[in-house]
Amino acid sequence: MLETLHSEAGAAFATISHADLHSDRRPSISVVRKQSILFVTSEIADYIKAGGLGEVSAALPRALRHSYDVRILIPGYRQVLSQIGAVEEIARLPASFGIPECGLGRGTTKDGLTVYVLLCPELYERDGSPYVDSFGQDWSDNDIRFARLGLAAADIACGNGDPLWQADLLHLNDWPSGLAAAYLAWRGQHIPTILTIHNLAYQGLFERDRLPSLGIPDAAFHINGVEFYGKLSFLKAGIFYASHITTVSSTYAQEITRPEFGCGLDGLLRTRARQGRLDGIINGIDPSWDPSKDPYLVSRFSAENFRGKRANANTVRKSFGLALSNGPLFAVVSRLVHQKGVDLAISAAETIVSQGGQIAVIGQGEARFEAELQALARRHQGSVGVRIGYDEGDARRMYAGSDFLLMPSRFEPCGLSQMYAQRFGSLPIAHRTGGLADTIEDGVNGFLFGEPCLHRFTDAIKRGLDAFRSRPRLSAMRRAAMKRPHGWDSSASKYKEVYERACQTAAWA
Asked: Is residue 231 marked as binding?
């Protein structure tokens, strides 16, 4: 498979031996082709983003493009089509079962990354996010919408998409693309597939009676297949049929094999771990997170000179209605949901305010948390400021201006916010779980606490306040946080190792 040649221009290059250069005979030319990777995702930060998957989908393919011919497949949401520019339809993908026909379009990002777009207005050209409508309700046809994505990925891997390109390996992401691995298996195709789990809690669950419309064989509705407690699980399908599973931190890879974090899939994941088919690879953050260059900041700074943090802090205070202060500024940049420990942050606010601290919050999520935070801000005017929603500039200035980031997540597969905060010299105060445990060194570049409860959380906050009162220690911790490696190079190298193992496994199948 790795030696299969495709005719796409630019995919190959010629090499001439040293001996040939010094002889009269015609040089022998060997063709070396980059392995072809199709990165299948339901969101990408270039065009549409609902969470961390969008950031990873934008950054990881770019980190891999020097080693692979990596291309992206994404549904043709309205937001994608309005931003990507010219899209050439290169194929029609036929209807199958209850999955409608669609066009396969090809476009490019501004920096030349090839993006395949599924052109199916009836499924994708809607207001709302990739997964929910403008009222926050799941689209009723999400099973068809993302089965279409999985089936298209399988078609492209089998050579039925772009006539000039074929994938050697599929890199699938979360439940929306999980069925791709299953469709290949049901066709008897041994094309290697990697499934990355970004958050095991989201599984893509649907009723059993949807099987015929999705082209899922009855025999696959089994514990050794797609069945999950009487329902169809797209994520389980991906885990069961993929060649290899990755998740987004080494600690989370261990956690999801235990019942308390496994979301009912811990047994299957323990099996994959025993087989050597489960790896944890921490995410990186893209190079734009650089406080010395960030255009959103009112004053730029670096690990060698972070005096500019104060100007950003004052801007945040003014923007969020906080009083000017020399005390510590705490930030919350988060989805406002139970997983993120928002209730713990609300309860800990009294401790922070009583110690002269201030809190700025940006995010949206569950209505009860939004209301509780707004009530908290009214009780502590000048000390707590809340903005429901999200703005990139505000968020970046909050990371840059704050002294601490509150991140008491009950579980956190990887987390990006703590890395953004560290890069901008804000010390995360976080629960010791998942990627938080892998990226924060307690007392060195942030603070960790064990049990996700108010007592442990406030203890960690008090340790942060102690550090704030000791300027030499605070400066040393900020510097350590800013200098921690945050990029994608190490992670990309580990993905390359996984790709090679998956290809070997598929070759033996």
From this structure: no
